[in-house]
């Protein structure tokens, strides 16, 4: 075997010489001197290491090769870390994949509002200062029946702010069955402490009664708190006090009743054929003073924390200094406005709001999508893997309705091997390759197969267009 001659460190050009190469000039024009010089140094450093190790060929440091390497380095450096992906995990509101996907109307409004200045806090009628809350307050009140509303960065902030504003330095009574932990270190006892409130636990893990709350109320009590047990289910011998009863008690004893709904769907999920989830409308009608919920769970909008309720309580929350630190930025606010506007046209939701469109897809519809992928995917993966159409279960995700499953369909991909040995490695290799595609495909591994649930796939061509690359990379 003939080897090309080795390059030694002295053969490497200087940075200046590299930057003067004619083939490097277009890079300087496109990106400016700073970045190109930094990447040139990175490239020469790595080539020097190879030269010292004796593994660098003279051919690797030809002008043409050097400028191609430099261009690749620059491209990699500028590639965004945040990437769009295809969520074929079967979890519709996937916390790790950015939760809800915005409706087109929200993307359009968001983009339009960011192209220039806007009236975020400006009253276009009288030319004076406006309040950013007023952009969505009317919509939220119309949809939920609340007297007033305000919005913050996320529901965790909504809960923290509500407790701090309404119960700072005083006692908050909460059932032991509702001391939830949401992923990412949001734990009710810690939130209470951060908000400067004194948490008073009542009842037991499985059963809490009205009398438990009644007995705990004293002169230091500011609030009764209900927390929706969104990401777990207490089953069996259980009892909790409905909001309507707590509301009577709260009114009689002159304390606030605040409910953290977590997801808080704005439409009756039951009417859409989905598992029932309490709505802010129901909580307010039951007499809750304040209800908080997320913008990017079942609501299907941007990350936001929505706070709706009685006017005097909302005013107190809005005026509390912490509100300034937690306020919603103009980007999600624009997206939220357009998303809420869709709720004025509820008939359009299952078509135009991706979260509800995907959740309400029938198994037959999902099967049709999977069917369209079956043959092309088989062709791309043969002979190492077999692909079959399979029924599977999707979940709603993001802590919503943790025990409910939606009948779904997708592809199950299994390695072709003599025995079970090597199955894990072969599946890992496939999953890694799928994640490495230009538009990464994220599935899930279960029962010695990689499952690609097609519930959230709107456009099969986004998969089909990548199959040639997939086939190449697996070879
Ligand atoms: C999800 C959730 C939260 C946190 O909401 P974010 O919008 O993620 O901040 C708080 N409480 C409950 C009950 C939840 O389900």
TrEMBL record:
Catalytic activity, EC: 2.9.1.1
Gene expressing this chain: selA
Compartment annotation: Cytoplasm
PANTHER family listed in its UniProt record: L-SERYL-TRNA(SEC) SELENIUM TRANSFERASE
Catalysis: reaction(s): L-seryl-tRNA(Sec) + selenophosphate + H(+) = L-selenocysteinyl-tRNA(Sec) + phosphate
Enzyme class (EC, first level): transferase
InterPro entries, per the entry: PyrdxlP-dep_Trfase (IPR015424), PyrdxlP-dep_Trfase_major (IPR015421), SelA-like (IPR018319), SelA_trans (IPR004534), SelA_trans_N_dom (IPR025862)
NCBIfam families (alphabetical): selA
UniProt keyword terms in alphabetical order: Cytoplasm, Protein biosynthesis, Pyridoxal phosphate, Selenium, Transferase
Pathway(s) where this gene product acts: Aminoacyl-tRNA biosynthesis; selenocysteinyl-tRNA(Sec) biosynthesis; selenocysteinyl-tRNA(Sec) from L-seryl-tRNA(Sec) (bacterial route): step 1/1
Residues in L-seryl-tRNA selenium transferase N-terminal domain copies: 11-48
GO MF term (any one): L-seryl-tRNA(Sec) selenium transferase activity
Function: Converts seryl-tRNA(Sec) to selenocysteinyl-tRNA(Sec) required for selenoprotein biosynthesis.
Family indicated by similarity: Belongs to the SelA family.
N6-(pyridoxal phosphate)lysine found at: 297
Identification of the protein by name: L-seryl-tRNA(Sec) selenium transferase
